[in-house]
Every structure is written in C-alpha cells, then in structure tokens.
C-alpha cells in the first residue's frame, strides 16, 4: 500500500485530475512492450539532458570527466568512484 507522501510525489502538480486520469487510461491500454519502449526512451532523454547540463557547466570537461560526473549524479559519488576513479570535488 502506498503512503500519502509517495502518492503525492507521484501526482504531478501541474496536471488537472481529469487529464492525469486520461493519461493513466492511455498507458494502461498499451501493451507492456510499448510501455517499456516509452520508459526506455524517456530514460535516454533524461540522460541526454543531464549530459548536456554537465557539458554546459563544464565546457572543458573531456568525455571521461563527463561520464564520471554523470555517474556521480546517477549513482552517487561512492559507486561512481569505484568505476571511474577520482570524481571531481564539485560533482553532484
């Protein structure tokens, strides 16, 4: 059972309930493989936006630094450091 706080976090504040209900209906009507494909596409889009933000804030960062900064953002500094070595101090 979802808690009140998790339900609130899942409800967009900028969407009227009728629109949200229709969106959920449309999602539920799709076959699982289509929902999965949409989730993958959204995940890739979010990753691309994160990389673009890192490159904008750190224009001199090489490919490895961008990857390390992205890993720190996605997985935390400890895990990122295990896979990419030292993480810049200002990486979040």
Question: Can you tell me the residue ranges where pLDDT is under 50 for at least 5 consecutive residues?
Answer: none
Rg result:
18 Å
Helix count, per DSSP?
5
Helix content: over 70%
Q: Kindly state the mean pLDDT as a whole number?
A: 90
Number of strands: 0
What characteristic shape results from the CA principal axes? elongated
What does it look like?
With 92 residues, the protein is mostly helical. It has one domain. It is built from five helices and no strands. The protein has helices spanning 4-10, 17-29, 32-57, 63-75, 77-84. Helix 3 (32-57) crosses helix 4 and helix 4 packs antiparallel against helix 5. The radius of gyration is 18 Å and the shape is elongated. It starts with a helix and ends in an 8-residue tail after the last helix. The model has no long low-confidence stretch (mean pLDDT 90).
Brief overview:
The protein is mainly α. It has five helices and no strands.
Which helices and strands, and how do they pair?
Layout: H1 4-10, H2 17-29, H3 32-57, H4 63-75, H5 77-84
Helix pairs in contact: 3-4, 4-5
